[in-house]
Specification:
- It contains seven helices and eleven strands.
- It has three domains: 36 residues; 99 residues, Umud Fragment, subunit A; 99 residues.
- The chain is of the alpha+beta class.
- The longest helix is centred in the middle third of the chain and has 31 residues.
Length: 297
């Protein structure tokens, strides 16, 4: 037992065990999500602009199993190419559902970037249906797309992001062992800690701004998505609904509401992270310092 405790005291061993635990937890969570959503692969990454601006390139979408009878006009669905020309699944919006003479469900779809007519796949047989889109998480698919696309401009950005993460981890490790350093070194570690807190705050504020306004035509923020839809359909015909950690942009198109995709709100998430980070890294240590000073005096 003592030997096991000595082994666990090793920082390297603890990191290895934490990594293994994280993989096991992630795998278990994936299996649970698959079971709940009823599809083998509930996650897809948008790789084209046919659903712009409702879905953007790099968006991570979550789908749920649905039967043709459960679908309705306006739903966003993922299906296989009926002509087998494209290896990747297609995500479009339903504009019509009907039953043919043989009693089979047929579905007609179109991309929001076009909004009129039908796409080249319609009408397609409901047996090609994979699932209905129930949620969208912007941006994070851009980390995966460079692995799929031979020509991608995102590799440089990914390298920069990874470099920043490595630097932040190094600063965090430097600032984490202050009590173990002598008085002369404490000044250095305190300086590293201040830099670490400032860099984290600046990075989080930048990401918060990015989540609201975006960057570029296919990396839209929430407010930029609203602005583009307002320009296209008129501000009176665009409705932004904000929920807890989510938002949705609905549009009045040709007299009927075109429901947007329920979207994870990075702005709310980042605002929460900023508050929690500063409370744990600044406010709580300051309160402890004041209390200890009062006790010692």
């Amino acid at each position: 037992m003592t030997a096991l405790k000595e082994i666990y005291r090793s920082r390297f061993i603890r990191v290895i065990l934490q990594v293994i635990f994280s993989f096991v937890l992630a795998f278990s969570l994936l299996m649970l999500i698959r079971t709940l959503l009823g599809v083998e692969n509930p996650f897809f990454v948008v790789s084209s602009g046919s659903m712009y601006p409702t879905l953007n390139i790099g968006d991570f979408i979550v789908i749920q199993r649905a039967t043709p009878a459960q679908l309705k006009i306006g739903d966003i669905v993922v299906f296989m190419d009926p002509h087998a020309r494209l290896k990747a699944p297609i995500v479009h919006r339903i504009v019509n559902i009907f039953v043919d003479e043989s009693g089979n469900y047929k579905i007609a779809t179109v991309g929001d970037a076009v909004s009129v007519g039908l796409d080249q796949f319609s009408p397609w047989d409901a047996s090609l249906l994979i699932g209905r889109v129930i949620m969208r998480i912007p941006y994070i698919g851009n980390l995966y797309l460079p692995l799929l696309l031979k020509e991608s401009n995102a590799r440089k950005e990914i390298i920069i992001i990874i470099s920043i993460i490595i630097i932040l981890i190094a600063l965090m490790l430097l600032s984490g062992d202050e009590e173990k350093k002598d008085a002369q070194k404490k000044v250095l570690w305190s300086g590293a800690r201040i830099i670490y807190i400032l860099v984290i705050n600046l990075l989080l504020l930048y990401l918060l701004f990015f989540s609201l306004w975006g960057w570029g035509i296919y990396s839209l923020g929430m407010l930029e998505e609203y602005r583009l839809n307002a320009e296209k359909y008129g501000s009176k015909n665009v409705f932004l609904t904000i929920g807890f950690m989510t938002y949705r942009i609905d549009c009045l198109v040709y007299g009927s509401i075109r429901q947007g995709a329920l979207t994870f709100s990075w702005s709310q998430f980042l605002l929460l992270i900023i508050i929690l980070f500063n409370v744990t890294e600044i406010l709580i240590p300051y309160i402890r310092f004041r209390l200890n000073r009062r006790v010692s005096s």
